[in-house]
Amino acid sequence: MAIESCNPSSLGPAACEKDAKALQFIEEMTRNTDMVQEKVLAEILSQNAETEYLQRYELDGATDRDTFKSKIPVVTYEDLQPDIQRIANGDRSPILSAHPISEFLTSSGTSAGERKLMPTIRAELDRRQLLYSLLMPVMNLYVPGLNMGKGLYFLFIKSETKTPGGLLARPVLTSYYKSDHFKTRPYDPYNVYTSPNEAILCPDSFQSMYTQMLCGLYQRMEVLRVGAVFASGLLRAIRFLQIHWEELAHDIATGTLSHKITDSSIREAVSGLLKPNHQLAQLITNECSGGNLDGIIKRIWPNTKYLDVIVTGAMAQYIPTLEYYSGSLPMACTMYASSECYFGLNLNPMSKPSDVSYTIMPNMGYFEFLPHESSSDQIRNSTPRLVDLADVEVGKQYELVITTYAGLCRYRVGDILRVTGFHNSAPQFKFIRRKNVLLSIDSDKTDESELQKAVENASELLREFDTSVVEYTSYADTKTIPGHYVIYWELLVKDPSKGPSQEVLNQCCLIMEESMNSVYRQCRVADNSIGPLEIRVVKNGTFEELMDYAISRGASINQYKVPRCVNFTPITELLDSRVLSTHFSLACPKWTPERRR
Ligand code: AMP
After folding, report:
1. Of all atoms in ligand 1, which is nearest to the CA of residue 108?
2. Which of 308, 387, 384 is nearest to 349 (CA)?
3. Tell me: the pLDDT tens digits for 163-191?
4. Cβ(332)–Cβ(324) under 8 Å?
5. Residue 450 contacts residue 435 (beta carbons within 8 Å)
6. 124, 135, 229, 310: residue to mutate for ligand 1 pocket, most atoms within 8 A of CB
7. Which of 181, 192, 255, 492 lies 20 to 30 angstroms, CA to CA, from 51?
8. Beta strand 426-434 with 411-423: parallel, antiparallel or unpaired?
9. What's the CA-to-centroid distance between 107 and ligand 1, angstroms?
């Protein structure tokens, strides 16, 4: 029953008392954005007043924004690395944070080829937990009845390492799933998972995935939502089903558990579930044996109302594949977070992926925004002023700069966000991209979103051949003269007898080039400093091998994102050894000195 009386929220009527409190909290925070931000900064600065870092910049105990902004520099990871290294080496003095550093969170962002190490403190777990606790109350506003079933979420931990000084270093989600906050979470009828904790917490990724899939299959009629952290994780689960359905169906038919599951805590946790179910085994066999994955999620889990998975940013390229596997179920992107800090949530989670905006919660940290200007503006305005959270302007793009309770001060996250509107006085942001340059041969600089757009444009051409690009990456090949862009494609050809011809794929190369920025096209056409773009079509499963390789080198399944550019030789060798065909642009893209628009 909706509790309207205790719901002063403009978000909508809460589904239950607990939700009403959460929505009220969101309202309170977002109505007082600037005040909350001021308070958060003062708290952080007073808590950390005695740290070496703040003393180095002579903050002298000041907690106001003006002094902070005038004395503390805006920094990148590389600037902080010497301090972080000292902490990693065992220096327990208050360098960045007055509270002891409880562990390092290993970001998927790297520095000098290694994962960045983000120091964190115990209290941050509470803050993360708080943000998680807001997600379902918002979702319940849009999808009724989620208390009548369960969520099938594919969640994984990853093994952890220790720094020379003995601190744990692990991905933020591993830290969270292993915490009591997660393990001993109180029962919430709106947030029941099919996966037992023992399966999520199993360090062996096969056993973890197998068990989570098995539990999801047994409880198929109860499943109301299917998810993973990122889209790539959900696709990996579907691929797992495609490969292992026979074994899973056998276990279900016999009510046994594969001998490959050796983890005794898992065996114990699922023992109550294992009952012979021939009908279910037959259904799985019928649905999976033909290899047809069209709408497989909806066929196996018919009551699924939505997919809970991040498909914004670099994950946007998975949208067509997920639509295919799910029979076009809605995709909810619920939150925006990082190892450094959890930022905020999507207050309209059933919006189309292209319309997703995240509301940064002002209580999570102190947020500043570096205007992200065109390069000509940057030259004119070499030190742009950072803008506060409450002062950003709709339509403008900014780079996110954070100050956290754990001791990062004015740290550039590297994410570029565009303001799309406000909820109360809290701005909402579309995630644009992570700031980076993917490819460069000459003076050209192609970033991730440009490459993504080029692949999308080219793959339009593949539609009539019932083919889509399921994965891609790129490589700046400078061994040829002039150098050229190499784009590796893994294709999903639904009907191999109707697949795209050599000519079509050559044409795709040209469409990609047409989609590149004018500097690229100028180099290509006028300067001849870039050679024709090449597409290399690789065998199915190649990108999974790439992921396996990354995981074997310490990447986390939860956080793994396909690198959109590869230059590490073993990776390019792996890709090249899986090439089925190569294709080149046979013409030059259009370029004139005039701007196109
Ligand atoms: P990590 O530090 O490995 O946890 O990665 C955090 C980064 O992942 C963020 O800084 C973003 O670049 C990206 N990310 C996290 N959440 C989202 C989201 N909802 N949409 C797009 N990108 C995201």
Report:
1. 3
2. 308
3. 999 999 998 999 999 999 999 999 999 99
4. no
5. no
6. 310
7. 181
8. antiparallel
9. 9
